[in-house]
Write a structure and sequence with these properties.
Layout: E1 7-9, E2 12-14, E3 31-38, E4 41-49, H1 54-84, H2 97-102, E5 119-121, E6 132-134, H3 136-152, H4 157-160, H5 166-183, H6 193-198, H7 208-212, E7 219-223, E8 226-227, H8 234-238, E9 244-252, H9 266-288, H10 304-309
Parallel strand pairs: 3-9
Antiparallel strand pairs: 1-2, 3-4, 5-6, 7-8, 7-9
Length: 321
């Protein structure tokens, strides 16, 4: 609270300002840096506070983890979009041109979803896309967006100490969506996996991607080989020390406990192996140099001091007939 008093004395105007400051209690939130892993593979860094419930933390980590998988899937599909155009209808997937003609099948979306600037023919060898490749400038837009999006969620950010956030994942998706909209202003066909990913209507049933995704309700967090119970807070498990860095491992329910972290890191193992190799090479050199040649040196003569005292150090003998 602030009080100001203004008094005028007879000998001149004097402004007296009285400040009364009340103590302000700042509640310092203890931040924790999480190194998130799936199995033994590093995923990303995430910063949170120690007071967060484990259940809420699992939801946030699941959102980022699954979001990064979504970005990766979209990037892979956009690369194919840049090479071979939009996805064929489900009833035409994998069919040859002869089979399509024989069955009288027609891609109704081919003329509706045309890339800006036209297209050139580039048949898809696996028969998933219609072969209408965008022009080179449009390809560059798609490829640059893919490179930028992958950089934003790259695992290399761990080595740089950069923290991953939900906003970063969303920005990567928005970047990809914007690039696709520029190249295909009329949008993609409703059955195209890229459009389905953007609308969150993708069907991953029976795919390898479905095994990678972890539903938030089925995610478990592990710390130091022990399951983190959802009814507890993070600080109750790892402590309330400020700027703590810990390793959290993700798993699905019924997968069991993930492997524990090794006592020695890979870098430490490399350094230890290198040190042992250097030591071994030094011992080999010492074995090769193990001879008695040094006994002929003056510094190894045990009687040199005695000869110096008697003045016989530089005496030379020569035998004559």
């Amino acid at each position: 609270m602030l009080f100001v008093s203004n008094r005028n004395h007879s000998r001149g105007g004097v402004l007296i300002v009285v400040l009364k400051l009340h103590e302000i209690n700042f509640e310092l939130t203890k931040m924790v840096l999480l190194h998130v892993k799936r199995g033994d593979e590093s995923q990303f860094l995430y910063e949170t506070n120690s007071s967060i419930p484990v259940e809420q933390l699992a939801l946030e980590l699941a959102t980022i983890y699954n979001g990064r998988l979504k970005v990766s899937r979209v990037c892979s599909e956009i690369e194919e979009l840049s090479k071979h155009g939009t996805m064929l209808p489900p009833d035409m997937l994998g069919l040859t041109d002869e089979q399509v003609e024989e069955l009288h099948l027609v891609d109704e979306w081919a003329d509706k979803c045309v890339p800006s600037g036209g297209w050139s023919l580039s048949p898809d060898p696996v028969g998933r896309r219609n072969g209408r490749q965008p022009q080179e400038k449009m390809q560059d837009i798609l490829e640059k967006a893919v490179d930028d999006a992958r950089t934003m969620i790259s695992k290399k950010l761990i080595d740089q100490g950069s923290v991953m956030q939900q906003k970063i994942v969303q920005d990567a998706l928005d970047l990809l969506r914007g690039a696709v909209t520029i190249v295909y202003p009329m949008q993609l066909p409703p059955h195209d996996p890229i459009r389905m990913e953007f609308l969150n209507t993708e069907d991953l049933t029976g795919t390898q991607a479905s095994l990678e995704v972890i539903e938030p309700s089925k995610m478990q967090l592990w710390f130091a080989g022990k399951l983190m119970l959802s009814d507890r807070k993070l600080g109750e498990i790892v402590g309330n020390n400020e700027k703590t860095k810990i390793i959290i491992k993700l798993s699905k329910i019924n997968e069991g406990a993930p492997s524990r972290e090794p006592v020695m890191s890979e870098e430490a193992k490399k350094q230890l192996t290198l040190h042992a190799y250097r030591r071994q090479e030094e011992l080999k050199k010492l074995e090769q140099d193990d001879d008695d040649q040094y006994l002929n040196s003056s510094w190894s003569d045990s009687r040199s001091l005695k000869r110096q005292v008697h003045g016989l150090d530089d005496v030379k003998f020569r035998f004559t007939k």
